[in-house]
Each structure stands twice: as C-alpha cells, then as structure tokens.
Amino acid sequence: MDLPFAENYRIKMVEPIYRSTRKEREEWIKQADYNLFNLPSEHVFIDLLTDSGTGAMSDRQWGALMTGDESYAGSSSYFNLKKQVKEIFGFDHFLPVHQGRAAENVLFSVLVKKGDVVPGNSHFDTTKGHIEFRKAKAIDCSVDEAFDTNGNHPFKGNIDLEKLSQVLESYPHEQVPMIIVTLTCNSSGGQPVSLANLREVRQLADRYEIPVIFDSARFAENAWFIQNREPGYQNKTIREIVREMYELADGMTMSSKKDGIVNIGGILAMRHEDWFQQASVYNIMYEGFNTYGGMAGRDMNALAVGLDEVTSADYLENRIRQVHYLGNQLINMGIPVQNPLGGHAVFVDAKRFLTHVPKEQFIAQTLAIELYLEAGVRGVEVGTLLADRDPVTKENRYPKLEFLRLAIPRRTYTNNHMDVVAAGLKNIFDRRESITSGFQITQEAPIMRHFTVKLKPQ
Questions:
Q1: 233 an active-site residue?
Q2: Distance between CA 228 and CA 226 in Å, rounded?
Q3: Does the annotation count 398 as an active-site position?
Q4: Is 429 an annotated catalytic residue?
Q5: CA 41 to CA 412: how far, in whole Å?
Q6: Which of 40, 108, 434, 435 falls 20 to 30 Å from 13 in CA-CA distance?
Q7: What gap in Å lies between CA 412 and CA 421, rounded to an integer?
Q8: Active-site residue among 124, 225, 347, 362?
Q9: Structural domain boundaries of the chain?
Q10: Neighbour-count burial of 4, counting CB atoms closer than 10 A to its CB (0-12 exposed, 13-18 middle, 19+ buried)
Q11: 51 an active-site residue?
C-alpha cells in the first residue's frame, strides 16, 4: 500500500494550553465586551484569530536568533536579510520595518495624498485604513467570481481588468498613485492571483504609467497555487515562480509575520531609487535607522532564514495540506465555506451559515462568538465590523462577503486540533436555526474599529 502523507518535521517543544468550560467562556467573553481581540490568550484553547506572527520557528531560525548582530547601523543581520530580499524578489532597494502596516505607512506617506484613488483586489483592513486615513479612496476591482463562495474559480484573487480600466479611465493619472495587488487576497478568502492576471495588470498599468505594488504577506502560498493550478508552471520551482511574479512589480510591502514565518517584522522594497530616498526619511522618523527599521538584529536573522524556508515546496505542501484538511472536513459536513480552499485559512460563509441573523447585527461576529463559546476556538470576523463605516456617510458598509476566518498558524497545531474546530462548527451548524439575533455596538473607534470595538447582545 502507498504510504500516507506525513509532515517532514518533528516537534521538539510543547506549550500547554488550558481546556476551559463553557461556563468560564461565557463569563470571559462577556468581560471582553464580546470582542475576541480582548480575550487573554490563556482563555483560548485553539487560537485561529490570525496566522500573523503566531507560527512556530524552525531550529535553523532559533539558531539564527543567537547570532543576531544588534549594531545600530550596518549590522550583519541587515545585510543577511537584504541579500535574501534581492535573491528572492529581485529588489535592490530595501527597508526593514517592524510589520506590514508599518511598510504601508512609510510607502503611502510618500505616494498617497488626499483625493487619490488606489485600485486593487479587496484591500485588507490596514491597507484600506492607511489609504482612508490620508483622505484617499480604496477601490475594489476584484473579479466577480470572488464573491460567489460556491464557485470554483482557481484564482479568485484576480483583478478584473475591465473594472481596473474603468478606474484608470475615470481619474487623472496624477490621482492614481499605485495599483495594489494582494498576494494571496486575504479578504476574498486567501485566494491566489494568477501569473497571467499579474501580467495583464502590469500591461494595463504600463499603458497608464501607474506603478504596481504587491502586498506580499503570503507571496509563497500564492506561488504554490500558481505551481499547482496554472498551466505551464507545474515544473517550475517556487523560487522561479516568485521571481517571475516580482518582475511585474515596482515595489512590495510585506508583513513578514506570515510567509516570513517569524513573530515580528516587515519588508518594504522597491525598484526606484527616488522612492527609496523619500521613504528613508519616513522610515527613520517612524521606524528607526534604515539598517534596522524597528527590528532587532536577531529578528532580521530569523526572517532571512524564514524566507529561505518558505520558498521550499515541502514546507508549502505541509502548510496548505493542513488548511485543506480542516476545510475539506467542513465541506463534507455541509458547512458553507469559500471555494476553492485558500492557503492560510478556511473562510466560513457566515451569511449562508446563520441565515436568520440580520446583517445589521454582525452575522460573522455572531458566528465567531458562537464558536468560542462552543469549543474555545478563537477565529475572527471578516465582514461588516472589519469593513468600518463609510468615511463620508458614516453608515455601516455591508460587504458582499461575511466570513468567519479560521487562520491557521504555521507549524503550530496538529490535525487533532483541526478535528476539534470542525466538531465545534458542526455542533453550531446543527442548531443554526435557533440562532436568530446577533450583537450591537456600544463603543467603536473611528477607523479599524474591529480591533477595539465593544458589543452587547441584541
């Protein structure tokens, strides 16, 4: 018989986690004002809030930590990381930052001004937040297939060329500082972008002389999907595909806490020296000197190793297999999820799951709270709370998709933990008809409210 699949690593250290009771969780979520971000981590059994900075580092990465150079200027750790950025992505100009939103803050301080528009594929929360904070507008040009969770389009992260053309035709060149392509597209369900689409976006951008920026948090997962789904790439390595992808970009922002497989860190890289000179000013003001930028030398060392490891096909197969293990269980149970399954998380379609909860009562947040109460599992809402209010009308924005995102940390949980998640959701699904009300806001911030919002049952 054929040997079954097994991970190509073994576990060297374990961290105890507390298995709480439902009665405890009912009190804890109330104390947290029904905001899962407010829960202390020890009150969570399986934490799928995010895959950002929550993964397990390898022995090579821990070894690299010990040899970090903490020199303020010109550390060897900086040059280790700069070398990897050049080899993997091809960019000459590089600035380390403390995480992805810091890269956005520095770059957008250079490029984005009041009244601008920034088209892209379903900008994520911090990206949209940094754009709107500058009184500019993010315009979603995702393909329509992204919003049909039943459909099986292999590249739901793609940009719709017709929608993008309309934006570029409708606004003066000076009002469109960049096109942002998110790899993979988190907000649409961790969905990949094809290389064919990246080329078409590049060609359209060149016609209008607009720069293209890649939000690169999950670049390697995107490359894995290209290798496995796009004709002509099955025999190319992940690194070859990544280089081909990034030849089409003018610059990149990256939260290294995802596909860098580290707990903190970020990357801002670009082709244009004038951008680099301007960005350096903001980097020094906001982050730190250009050769550390808010990162310790040991963290830069660990990131340099992480970028090497994440571009390994073996690592990516382990990573994505576990996401699909959970997703396929839910599909087999009849639980509605975004299809096809993405690379870093399973996105449960809350609208199709809780059909009796009004949209004004935050459907996906309601489902997230139910899962925590049922099984001690912390997921996150990607829906109306995250969408914030319209900056002009101040009314809630109701996105086409209401997701409960179950983001799986890298190399952290076993498939037994995934079984618990699946069973918890199945229990809720079996009683879903009895869930008819959600929550209302008692306090919220003016932007990116989902992190600190306070709620109460409706």
A1: no
A2: 5
A3: no
A4: no
A5: 15
A6: 40
A7: 14
A8: 124
A9: 22-51+313-457, 59-310
A10: exposed
A11: no
pLDDT per residue over 374-423, tens digit each? 999 999 999 999 888 988 899 999 999 999 999 999 999 999 999 999 99
β-bridge partners, 349? 403
217 is catalytic: yes
Residue type, 412: T
Model confidence over 430-447: pLDDT tens digits?
A: 999 999 999 999 999 998
Which listed residue (47, 140, 215, 299) is catalytic?
A: 215
Q: How many CA atoms lie within 13 A of 15 on its CB side?
A: 11
Options 47, 51, 116, 125, the catalytic residue: 125
Rounded Cα–Cα distance for residues 423 and 427 (Å) = 6
The CATH number of 22-51+313-457 is 3.90.1150.10
pLDDT tens per residue across span 326-382: 999 999 999 999 999 999 999 999 999 999 999 999 999 999 999 999 999 999 999
Catalytic residue among 5, 9, 72, 398: 72
Collect all residues with Cβ–Cβ distance below 8 Å to 158 and sequence separation of at least 6: 121, 142, 143, 145, 146, 193, 194, 197
Is 208 catalytic? The answer is: no
Q: At what angle do helices 415-430 and 363-375 cross, to 10 degrees?
A: 120
User: Which amino acid belongs to residue 120?
Assistant: G
